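Need a sequence for this fold. Nothing fancy.
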């Protein structure tokens, strides 16, 4: 859940829902009784991005870069970059809802409570802070709900599109045995559309070469160039890709990283998304792996599914009734055999054996980890439906080779998911009807492009 909440917080900041410290002039509620008429920044299929949404998001970026405004692109370019992010959020939320992904009010409440806790404030203080910055709490809730929907959509996408073979795991583990180095990377992307024409390729190549020239001549540092020119979704973070192990780096870059020194930048590289520059920020030795001891949990559960025959409210009510019977002394094993809709565990009285915290997803794992042995949870919601869980016991297990293989499998899966997900977003953006109504670049059905490198 921590990773989900971190993303939720970032999305809230971008949308203007959770304010940065300082005065957000553009996001302030108007003084006096008059309310301005909101405008439309972009039409996105059946939805819209309001001008006020764009203004709040841009203002938050400006506040974040206070004192470092020279690292930002010109105002019109910044607006286009931020608007493109907001457009992608609208498209992902619509796709999630269209494919049946749902997020309940209880899950939103839990996410908001966790965000408040991470910021070391109470819920009342969070409401007050939002009110001071002119942000309605309902808008904040909606932004968190949207981010949770996007996370669920991404999880479904990973389950359906990302496959990691045993041979890939074997090869990655062999490579790790020879090198424990991890790489902190950043990149700049000049994107190309699917089926790019020779003219588009030549223009993109000229632009990436121009950006490389600015960096090599010391006219602009890499992070500032990424903010100003990169087409990547992480452009406003200076193109930072974080720490990657060798098996998390695309093959086209992995061999280059081993020959580079921290601070160096590659020559332009053509990849499936377009032309890229990659900077090696720093390296570290990760060969000394931590202990392979992990906490495992043994639990039993009762699952009530939400489907075409059972609404969310009906499933929740049934789970609450079963929880009340358990509180009255009913036997968990017997109730699970009679009522659970998890066919794999029902005949065992709901017993799901020993598992690591996140084996069944963060929502399930966080609830189980908070229980004491023999304690029974309150009903809670996951993608599978409504659960009631009893923790049987815990243990520290040395999973050894199994755990290392699982970690390697996860890192390979993340790398594949990143590639596939970015391709999916480009396809979704290209297929969408988008009518941009602000700025000199207002247009229909075309992604916004960053300025040419020579434009300063």
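Here you go.
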């Amino acid at each position: 859940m921590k990773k989900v909440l971190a993303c939720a917080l970032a999305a809230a900041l971008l949308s203007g829902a959770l304010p940065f410290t300082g005065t957000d002039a553009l996001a302030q509620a108007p003084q006096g009784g008059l309310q301005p008429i909101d405008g439309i920044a972009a039409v996105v299929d059946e939805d819209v991005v309001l001008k006020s949404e764009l203004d709040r998001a841009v203002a938050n970026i400006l506040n974040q870069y206070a004192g470092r405004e020279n690292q930002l692109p010109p105002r019109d370019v910044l607006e286009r970059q931020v608007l493109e992010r907001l457009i992608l959020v609208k498209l992902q939320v619509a796709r999630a809802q269209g494919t049946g992904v749902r997020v309940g009010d209880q899950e939103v409440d839990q996410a908001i409570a966790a965000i408040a806790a991470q910021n070391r404030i109470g819920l009342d203080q969070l409401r007050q802070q939002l009110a001071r910055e002119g942000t309605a709490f309902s808008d904040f809730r909606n932004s968190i709900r949207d981010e949770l929907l996007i996370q669920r959509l991404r999880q479904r996408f990973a389950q359906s599109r990302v496959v990691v073979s045993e041979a890939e795991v074997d090869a990655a583990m062999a490579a790790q045995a020879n090198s424990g180095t991890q790489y902190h990377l950043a990149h700049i992307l000049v994107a190309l559309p699917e089926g790019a024409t020779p003219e588009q390729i030549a223009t993109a190549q000229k632009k990436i070469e121009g950006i490389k020239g600015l960096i090599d001549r010391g006219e602009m540092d890499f992070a500032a160039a990424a903010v100003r020119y990169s087409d990547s979704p992480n452009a406003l973070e200076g193109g930072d890709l974080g720490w990657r192990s060798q098996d998390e780096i695309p093959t086209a870059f992995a061999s280059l990283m081993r020959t580079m020194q921290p601070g160096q930048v590659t020559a332009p590289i053509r990849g499936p998304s377009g032309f890229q520059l990659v900077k090696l920020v720093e390296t570290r030795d990760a060969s000394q792996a931590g202990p392979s001891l992990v906490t495992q949990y043994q639990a039993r559960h009762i699952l009530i599914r939400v489907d075409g025959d059972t609404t969310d409210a009906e499933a929740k009510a049934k789970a609450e009734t079963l929880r009340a019977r358990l509180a009255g002394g009913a036997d968990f094993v017997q109730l699970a055999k009679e009522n659970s809709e998890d066919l794999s565990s029902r005949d065992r009285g709901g017993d799901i054996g020993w598992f690591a915290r996140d084996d069944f997803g963060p929502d399930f794992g966080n609830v189980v980890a908070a229980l004491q042995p023999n304690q029974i949870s309150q009903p809670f919601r996951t993608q599978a439906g409504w659960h009631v869980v009893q923790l049987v016991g815990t243990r520290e297990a040395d999973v050894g080779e199994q755990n290392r293989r699982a970690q390697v499998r996860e890192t390979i899966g993340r790398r594949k998911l990143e590639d596939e997900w970015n391709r999916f977003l480009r396809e979704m953006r290209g297929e969408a009807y988008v009518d941009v109504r602000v700025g000199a670049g207002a247009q229909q059905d075309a992604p916004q492009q960053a300025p040419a490198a020579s434009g300063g």
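For context: The domain at 293-398 is CATH 3.10.50.40 (Chitinase A; domain 3).
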